[in-house]
């Protein structure tokens, strides 16, 4: 209970964490356990927590994922957190944390994702970070960090995304980073950096020699500040006036579309088929009927309809795809959280014992239905999951909502599927609720006919 009282000082957000309760009984909000009934995951992002991160969290020796981002946590990062040797994902971004990053963090050998961005952290970047051999995503941007970028980061051969922008870092970009062939995204936007940009000619992940993106800004207005960085030479053309974040396009593919690591996907294909048959065939047929009467995207529309199956992540969570390169099927966990307002109850379209469906609005204005499959159902092997999703994607039928993307968060223990949003409400609301108009016989026959057409695919 010390963790609860420290995180939720007002006792408003974690009321389900009762002293007499059992954390592994599914009654504790945001807590997931492993097969040995030990706490393995705490997911409390966007819960309005305003307390502190207590050293007591280090007592959870089996913890592999700690998600406390998008809260208002204060105070320093406790040194004791380094005792969580099984931790792979640490998300503390978008809080009000202060103080220095504990050097002891270098002992967390299992760490794969370290998200500390958008806080008020000060001091130098610990050189001990160069010992995190399994790290593939490091985000420290928008803090108050000073000093130089540790050269040891270049020795992290698993590192794919490095975000250090909007700090007060100084000195040169380490040449060791240029030799890191796994690096796909590098953000070093800092006004005090100096020296040459190191040549990156041996990194196919960055797609091309050097940083050609820096040469693309040749149309500059008269108000451009050319002193954002102090690189004296090394490239022709104008520097990027806004950022040194490189996500370069080559061969019509994005080398690093989102700051994330590839997911470890898994879900029983039978679950997909079952969810598809029972929820989609009926609900989607009804959506098409309603779609004829309602304008797509009407703000008053609500839907429980895209209850097919679900999209998710591992760590910062890149979603994989079985579709062609021109489809928007890559999403990451932060996009999904932002689209659903951190899975707000206001966006909840419907839920069952095994899943929840949320309405989500992406940054480009696209409205999606996001289905979250719970930790007890989201299991099995990646290959099996991909086979099931590939089969679903190959189906073409007027009564089926289009599947847009998917992935699985191993640490969170949840899977997600993203579908086009179908407005018009859900079928049960028209069958069971007294306040809506009763469907006439002709309409009901039309719905049943649509259900039958969906079943024909199986």
TrEMBL record:
Residues 295-314 are annotated as: Disordered. Pfam families: LRR_1, LRRNT_2, PK_Tyr_Ser-Thr. Residues 302-313 have a biased composition (Polar residues). It is found in: Membrane. Residues 343-458 form the Protein kinase domain. The keyword Secreted does not apply. One of its GO terms (molecular function) is ATP binding. GO terms for cellular component: membrane. It is a single-pass type I membrane protein. Keywords: Kinase, Leucine-rich repeat, Membrane, Receptor, Repeat, Transferase, Transmembrane, Transmembrane helix. It comes from the Eukaryota. This is Leucine rich repeat receptor kinase. It comes from Striga asiatica. The lineage of its organism: Eukaryota, Viridiplantae, Streptophyta, Embryophyta, Tracheophyta.
